[in-house]
Amino acid sequence: MIFARFTLAVLSIVASLIFAQATPKASPEPNTARQVVARGDSARTGTWQATPPSFDVPLRRSWVMPLGAPPSADPIIGEEIVVIAKRDAGLVALDIETGATRWSLPRPVDITATPVIDGDAVIAADVNGSVIAVSVADGTVIWESVIPPGELTSPIVAEGFIVVTSSSGTVTALERETGRVAWQRPAAEPITTMPTLIGTDVVFGDQRGTILALDLATGETRWSVLVSAGVVEAVVAGPGAMFVGTTDGMLVALDLETRERLWAVPFTGAFPVAPVLLDDVLIAAGGNRTLMALDPVTGETLWSDPVPDSAAELLAVPGAVFVATGSGDIVAVDPASGERLWRDATGGGGARLAVTNDMLVVISGDGDVIAFGND
Length: 375
Description:
about 375 residues; mainly beta; Methylamine Dehydrogenase, Chain H; 4-stranded antiparallel sheet; 32 strands; about 45% strand
């Protein structure tokens, strides 16, 4: 196998043409230093592409820090720390260079949603409806806000608001600086996704298959559309379309402006995770242990490849898609061809991932935090 060097140059011309006529555009500011939000950006594309990756495959382990507990959420990578939501143990911040513990914050219940780093604060939400802001520097609690009970999802932070969705069927916007409730809206059905930001719309899906949009500033309903079944993990927004995987195994593309269905492709079994959008390739992992790349404009299959177990997570940088399998393997594949580039057996199942331009961080199912790079 020939190992490929990651590069941004591969698809830049084609990517600029995709959905060029469509509005509104879902084009959040890319992360300029470290991954600070779940799935790479507020459009939930699953991609980190601010700058060219500075590492090559195969990757090597830089450090390992045993936590002694399985992960409850994805790690999040700041400038100097990696923040971990540790099951039954609250938040832990590790030094990005060594893995040594910088600080820890015990909590009475699990934090199962990936935290967000926003400036000087880590924003985290737990299973009992509490949202906390803590200091990046030392883990000191800045404020805590309690909203209606229910397992909360990973927040988005935009325009002075923190927005979270709840499994109990509530969408809440908090003031970023104080934690006070700015607005709150009930949904008709239990919400099954984290919020996605599309322009000034907060977009989410529910267990019935309804995708709804609320105004970021006021919480007023902007639009809604129904797909075939419950929406999985996140609505993924691109520069002209949005994509969802459903519990009945459909991968659906909708026009951002009209919400009309562009195409739908059936998979076998419910989607375990939302798809990843990397420039002009949409990559999805079906419940039948198949990894598939599609043209986001037409839904045409570009390549497909079986994986050894169902995917627990997908995350991408230009040049590579990382797949965490249910059996504990981390696999990197070329998004253009599906070629296997690298593999590591991290142990346990259901590993959680975060990636930057120079580092891949994995929390294994056995509770080890593993940093990969070329050093």
